[in-house]
Amino acid sequence: MRNTVVDLFDVVKCYPGVRALDGVSAGFAAGTFSAVMGPSGSGKSTLLHCAAGLDRPDSGQVKLGGHEIGRLREPKLTETRRRLVGFVFQTYNLLDSLSVWHNVLLPQRLAGVRPDRAWAREVVRRVGLSGRENDRPAQLSGGQRQRVALARALAARPEVIFADEPTGALDLATGREVLGLLREAVDELGTTIVMVTHDPAAAAWADRVVFLADGRVVAQLDNPSAEKVAAQMTAVSAR
Amino acid sequence: MIRLAIGSLRRHRGVYAGTFLAAMLAVALLAGAGMLLFSVLTAKPPADRFAAAPLVVSGARQVSVATETVKHKKEGKTKLKRKVKNERLTGAGTLPADLPARIAAVPGVTGVVADAAFPVQVAGPDGMPLRGTDGAPVIGHGWRSAVLTPYQLRSGHPPAHGEAVIDADLAARGRVAVSDTLHVTTRTGEYSVRVSGIAAPAGRDGLAAQGALFLADGDVAAVSGLAGPTAVGVFARPGVELGGVVGDAEVYTGDDRVRADLPGALPDYVGPISIFGFVIGITAFAAVFVLTGTVALGVRQRLRELALLRTAGATPGQLRRLLGLESVVLAALAALPAAPLGIVFARVVAARFRALHAVPAQFSVRVNLPVMLLGALAGVLVTFVAARIAARRSVRIAPTQALTETATAPTGGLVPRVLVALVTTGGATAILTFVPLGGPLGMGMSFVSSALLLCAVAALGPYLVRPLTIAARPLGLAGMLARAEYRRVAALAVPLVLMFGINATMLLNSTLLGKLTEQDQVARDAVATAQVTGPGGLPLSTARRLVATPGVTGAAALLPTRVIAVKGGKPEDYPAQGLLAAGQSALDLDVRSGAYAADGVGASEAMVRQYGWKVGQVVPLWLADGVPVRLRLTMVYARARGFGDLVLPAGLVAAHDPSGLISTVGLRYTPGTAQRLLADFPSLRVTPAVGAAATGDASEQQGAWELMVVISLGFTAIAVVNTSAIATASRRREYADLRLAGATVGQLHRMAGAEALVTVFAGLLLGAAVTGVVVGAFSTAQDGALRWLVDPATYAAMAGGVAVLGLLAGTLPARLLLRRRGLATEA
C-alpha cells in the first residue's frame, strides 16, 4: 500500500439540525485518483471541505501530507492549504478580472513564491490552452474554463487536488475531456486527486470509489466500471 | 409589474440600501435648501413700527429705472415695451417738509405725524455702546413718532430740549436709568443727552431688530441733519384718498407699512437670498451627481439578474420599465424620512448662518409643505432619470449572458461619454475665458466651471482612470487586480474627485480672496502713520478737527456707503467710500489714471471696465437715500478689494448716507503727535501703522463660504463611503474566489488597501487637475498672478482629508465583509 496523502480519522461535522459527517475515516493514497460518491445530502461535499481545510471538523483528525490541519487556525490554515492543496470546482471560481495566465499563477503569487513559469507553461500546454494565455475567463467556453482551473491547480504542484463536481456544469463530451485530463495528471504527473461526483460515468475514471450515505462511509470499490458504480449507488440509495 | 419591482427591491436590500441612503440625503438637502430659500424669500419684517397708523406715506425706498424699447412688428405696427428694474436703497430719502401740512388738509384726515428715522450711535454712562436685541441698531426719532407704534412711557417724562427717551429693552441692556447721561453720535456731531424717561410698546420691552431713542421734536432736525420727514403717519377715516397731495411719494397700508421704515432698521434679506440660492445650487449639483452615480452602480450590480429576466422572456422595454418603477418606489420611500431630515438640515444651517451674521438674527426657517414635496419630487425625478440612463445600456445585455458566470454590460457608449465631456469642458473653458472672474460673479462662476469639469471627469471616468492605474504596478498582485478592475477604481475615484474638486475650489478661492483683500488693505494703509477709529464711527466734524490737529501732515477719512449705478437699464448697488483727504496722501489706492479731486468721483478698474467710463467723463450715480448726482470721473484706482468700487466726496456721502459716520481716519503726523491726539480725543482709538483687520463684510462672506464647504464636504464624504460600500458588496464573490485560490484574510485586506491607494491616487490627481485649472484661472483673473495651491496648509489638509476618507472607505467595508461567515459557504 502506498503512502496516504489525505487521512481522515473519525471526523464529525454538524450543521444546525444536520449531522453531515458522522464519524468518517478514510485515507487517499498518493498518486491515485479517488472518487467520493453518494446521494444528495450524504455529506460528500462536507467531506471534501473538511479534507481540504476549507471547513473545520467538530471532532476527529484530518491529516494533509502528514500535517494535522483539523485544529489549525487562520491564517496558518490558509497557508498550509495553499501549499498542499489545489482545487477544481463545478463553478470554476476563476477571477474574471485576471487573464488565463495570471489565474494559473495566482496561487503561487498569493503564497509569495516565485512562480515556476516553465512548469506553468507546460501545464497550460497539456490542458490544451496554449495561445489563450492572455484571454479573460469570460471569453472562454465552460470546458475551457475548467481546463484553466485544472491548470491552476496543477501549476502549484500540490500534494493533492480536490475536485468538486468538476464536470457538473459541462456537457458530456467536454466533461469526458476534463476527466481524461484529470486521469492523465494522475498517470503521467503522479498527482493525487480526490473528486466528489454524483455521476457514475465520471466516477468510473477513478482508481477507487468511496460511497457515503447519511454522513458515513458505507462502501468502497476498487477499479470501478460505470455499471458497477451505478449498481452500488442504487444499493446505497435504497438503504 | 409593480409587484415585481417591490419584490426585486426586497431581494436586493443590500444594494438598494446605498441608493436609498443617497436618495434620502439628496432629498433632504434639496428640501432643506429649498426651505431656506423659501423662508428668506417670504421673510416678513419682525415688527411694524407704524402699527398704530392706518396709512403711512414715504419716499421710494428703491431706485427704479424704466427702459422703453420699441419693437417693430410686421405690417408696420410698432409695440412699445416698458421694462422697470429696481434696486433697493440702503438709506431713506426725505419728503418735502410741507407735506404733513398738505396731507392734514385733506378732508377725512384726523391726524398727521411727521416721522424722522435716523441711525444713532449711543454709548451708555459707562462708555459701552448700546445695541438692541441681537446687536440691532439704535434708531433715533422725534418724540411725536412714539404714537405711531405706539410707545408709552413707563417712567419719567417726555424729552425736553437736550433730553431723550429710550426703549425699555435698551435701558435694561445698558443698565440705563432715568437721568443718566447718554453719549449720542450722529453724522451731525456728538451730543450728550439726559435720559428723561423709559418707554415701550404695549406688551413688549422694544421692537425686534431696532432699538428706539426719542429726542425732543425740536432737536430732531439739528441732530439728524434731515431736511424733512422720512415718513408721514396718517390717521384718517377709511376710504380717504391721498393720491392727490402726496405726489411721487408712496402710500402704504396694512403689512406694507413697514416698507416706509428706514431700510437699515429692517433685517436685510437680500444678501441671504443669493447665499441660499448658492446653497441650493451646490447641494442640487452634488445631490444629482452623487445620486446618478449611485443609481448607475446599483443597476450594474444586478446585471446577472437582468440577464436572467431576459431569458425568462422579459423584453428590454419591460426591464427599463422595471428599473424605472423600482427607482420611483425607492426614491418615494426615501423621501419619507428625508422630509423631516431636511427640516433639521435647514434649521442647523440657518442657526450657523445666524451665528456668522450672514443672515439677520431674526431669520427663522419656515416649514412649507409644497417646498418639501417639490424637493421630494426632484429627488424622485433625478433617481428615475438616472435609473433610465443606467438601464439604457444594461438592458441590452444578451439573454445568453445569464447562463455564463459573469454578466458584463456592453461597454459601448464611448461616443456619448466623449460628447458629454466635450460639451461640459467647452462650457467650463468658455466661462473661465469670457466671464470676468475678478468681478462679483467670480466665485459663483468659478464654482459652475468646476462643476462642469467634474461632469466631464465623471463622463470619462474609466478612460481617465485607466492610465493612472499604472501607479499600481509596484503593488504586485493587488495592483494587478486594481488595474484589471479599472472600472471599479473609476467608480470609486469619481466621488473622491467630486469631493476634492468642488470643496478645494470653493475653499481655495475664498481663501485667496480673503488674502488678497487683506493684502490690499495693508497696501492701502501702508502710507499712513496711524489709523484712528471711534466706537461706532465718528462724525465728519470730528474728523475735520482731527485733521486740523497740529502735527498732522496728511489724512484720509473714509465713510463707507452704498452707491447705485445703472448698467444697461439695470440699477446695481456697489460698495463705495466717501473720502476726505488732506495734506500728504494717507491712503494708497494704487491710482492708475487721473488723480484724486475733492469734488470728483473715483472708480475701480473693474467698474471702469464694466461701464466703459473714461477719466473726465461725467457719470450718473444714485446715493444711498436715492438722490441722483452727476459727478466727474477724476481717478481710476486698482486697490479696490475690501474697500469699494467708487470714491465720492465725504461731505456728499455724509449728507445722504443714513448713518453718515466716518469709519476710519488714516493719519500721517510728526513724532509726538500721537500723545496730543489721545489727549484731545479721549474716546478715539489710535492704532499706529497697519494692523486694521479686514472689513467685516469680507470675513462674513468667507465664513458663509466655509460653512457651505462644510455642508458639501459632509455630503460628498457620505457619497464616497456609500459608493464604496455598494462596490464592496459586489466584491463578495471575488473575495471568495481569492480565498479559494489560497489568499489569507490578511492578504485580502492588503489588496483592498492597495486598491484604495490606487483609487485615492487617481481621485486626488484628477481632483487636483480640476482644482488647478479653476483656481489658476480665478487667481490669474484677480491680480494676474498664477497660483495653484493658494494656501499650502489648506490644500494639504483638504488632500489629506480626502485621502484618509478614501482609504477608510476602501478598506473598512472589506473588513466588515470578511469578518462574516466561513469560507466553504461562500464557495
Automatic annotation (TrEMBL), chain A:
<dbReference type="InterPro" id="IPR017871">
    <property type="entry name" value="ABC_transporter-like_CS"/>
</dbReference>
<dbReference type="GO" id="GO:0005886">
    <property type="term" value="C:plasma membrane"/>
</dbReference>
<dbReference type="GO" id="GO:0098796">
    <property type="term" value="C:membrane protein complex"/>
</dbReference>
<protein>
    <submittedName>
        <fullName>ABC transporter</fullName>
    </submittedName>
</protein>
<dbReference type="InterPro" id="IPR017911">
    <property type="entry name" value="MacB-like_ATP-bd"/>
</dbReference>
<dbReference type="InterPro" id="IPR003439">
    <property type="entry name" value="ABC_transporter-like_ATP-bd"/>
</dbReference>
<dbReference type="InterPro" id="IPR003593">
    <property type="entry name" value="AAA+_ATPase"/>
</dbReference>
<dbReference type="InterPro" id="IPR015854">
    <property type="entry name" value="ABC_transpr_LolD-like"/>
</dbReference>
<keyword id="KW-0547">Nucleotide-binding</keyword>
<dbReference type="GO" id="GO:0005524">
    <property type="term" value="F:ATP binding"/>
</dbReference>
<dbReference type="GO" id="GO:0022857">
    <property type="term" value="F:transmembrane transporter activity"/>
</dbReference>
<dbReference type="InterPro" id="IPR027417">
    <property type="entry name" value="P-loop_NTPase"/>
</dbReference>
<dbReference type="GO" id="GO:0016887">
    <property type="term" value="F:ATP hydrolysis activity"/>
</dbReference>
<dbReference type="Pfam" id="PF00005">
    <property type="entry name" value="ABC_tran"/>
</dbReference>
<feature type="domain" description="ABC transporter">
    <location>
        <begin position="6"/>
        <end position="239"/>
    </location>
</feature>
<keyword id="KW-0813">Transport</keyword>
<keyword id="KW-0067">ATP-binding</keyword>
Automatic annotation (TrEMBL), chain B:
<keyword id="KW-1133">Transmembrane helix</keyword>
<feature type="transmembrane region" description="Helical">
    <location>
        <begin position="328"/>
        <end position="349"/>
    </location>
</feature>
<feature type="transmembrane region" description="Helical">
    <location>
        <begin position="707"/>
        <end position="729"/>
    </location>
</feature>
<dbReference type="Pfam" id="PF02687">
    <property type="entry name" value="FtsX"/>
</dbReference>
<feature type="domain" description="ABC3 transporter permease C-terminal">
    <location>
        <begin position="708"/>
        <end position="819"/>
    </location>
</feature>
<feature type="transmembrane region" description="Helical">
    <location>
        <begin position="20"/>
        <end position="41"/>
    </location>
</feature>
<feature type="transmembrane region" description="Helical">
    <location>
        <begin position="418"/>
        <end position="437"/>
    </location>
</feature>
<feature type="domain" description="ABC3 transporter permease C-terminal">
    <location>
        <begin position="278"/>
        <end position="398"/>
    </location>
</feature>
<protein>
    <submittedName>
        <fullName>ABC transporter permease</fullName>
    </submittedName>
</protein>
<feature type="transmembrane region" description="Helical">
    <location>
        <begin position="443"/>
        <end position="465"/>
    </location>
</feature>
<feature type="transmembrane region" description="Helical">
    <location>
        <begin position="486"/>
        <end position="508"/>
    </location>
</feature>
<feature type="transmembrane region" description="Helical">
    <location>
        <begin position="756"/>
        <end position="781"/>
    </location>
</feature>
<keyword id="KW-0812">Transmembrane</keyword>
<dbReference type="InterPro" id="IPR038766">
    <property type="entry name" value="Membrane_comp_ABC_pdt"/>
</dbReference>
<feature type="transmembrane region" description="Helical">
    <location>
        <begin position="369"/>
        <end position="391"/>
    </location>
</feature>
<keyword id="KW-0472">Membrane</keyword>
<feature type="transmembrane region" description="Helical">
    <location>
        <begin position="793"/>
        <end position="818"/>
    </location>
</feature>
<keyword id="KW-1003">Cell membrane</keyword>
<dbReference type="GO" id="GO:0005886">
    <property type="term" value="C:plasma membrane"/>
</dbReference>
<dbReference type="InterPro" id="IPR003838">
    <property type="entry name" value="ABC3_permease_C"/>
</dbReference>
<feature type="transmembrane region" description="Helical">
    <location>
        <begin position="275"/>
        <end position="299"/>
    </location>
</feature>
